[in-house]
Write a structure and sequence with these properties.
The protein has four helices and seven strands, in the order E-E-E-H-E-E-H-E-E-H-H. The protein is α+β, with helices and mostly antiparallel strands. It has one domain (3-180): Hypothetical upf0131 protein ytfp. The protein has a five-stranded antiparallel beta sheet. A two-stranded antiparallel sheet has the order 6-7. The chain is globular, with a radius of gyration of 16 Å. The relative contact order is 0.22. The protein binds succinic acid.
Length: 188
């Protein structure tokens, strides 16, 4: 049986594993927020960056990319790769994935998604909410082995826009970061 993985952060623009098919769509009941601290990809233990996680939120949709992986070998390789890449995400959830905005029937059931939970006992890197300006300042300064934190935010902003998806939290944060950078202007 094929395995499906849902990406709502860097997995949208960079899978990093072999897949048979990808679909842009959404999951229900979650909100994407820049509340997870990253000390291994977009920051360091001394200066954590901010990456996205999912928080349960009634009535919300979170758009992203679902990947279909089939064949035992491909599934094993993808899982071992993801377990390392997403190691600061402490929980795997299995969710329904939709492609039609008004549909009540899931396109795929049981899609796996990595979540960083807000409980500091199981997720010591969780940062939680802060003002837009505070988050923007932190993102501007943070950089880790996968690159500058601001690039993560800009790539996510761009990837969502390319798919016609408006995520106000991502757009507002990207614009707040651009406002603090001398050489760029906020985009609409
Ligand atoms: C994801 O993309 O689904 C998880 C968060 C990340 O790696 O950015």
């Amino acid at each position: 049986m094929a395995m499906w993985v849902f990406g709502y952060g860097s997995l949208i623009w960079k899978a990093g594993f072999n897949y048979d098919e990808k679909l842009f769509g959404f999951i229900k009941g979650y909100r994407r927020l820049f509340y997870q601290g990253s000390t291994d990809h977009r920051g360091t233990p001394a200066f954590p960056g901010r990456t996205v996680t999912l928080l349960p939120c009634d009535g919300e949709k979170c758009w992203g990319m679902a990947y279909k992986i089939s064949g035992e070998e491909n599934k094993e390789i993808a899982l071992s790769y993801l377990e390392v890449r997403e190691k600061q995400y402490d929980t795997k959830a299995y969710v329904d994935f939709y492609t039609e905005p008004n549909s009540t029937i899931a396109t795929i059931q049981g899609v796996m998604v990595y979540v960083a939970s807000p409980d500091p006992r199981i997720n010591p890197n969780y940062l939680g909410p802060a003002s837009l300006e505070e988050m923007a300042k932190q993102i501007i300064q943070a950089e880790g082995p996968s690159g500058p934190n601001r690039d993560y935010l800009f790539q996510l902003d761009e990837a969502l826009k390319q798919h016609g998806c408006e995520d106000s939290h991502v757009i507002d944060l990207a614009n707040a970061v651009r406002k603090l950078l001398p050489e760029t202007k906020p985009s609409s």
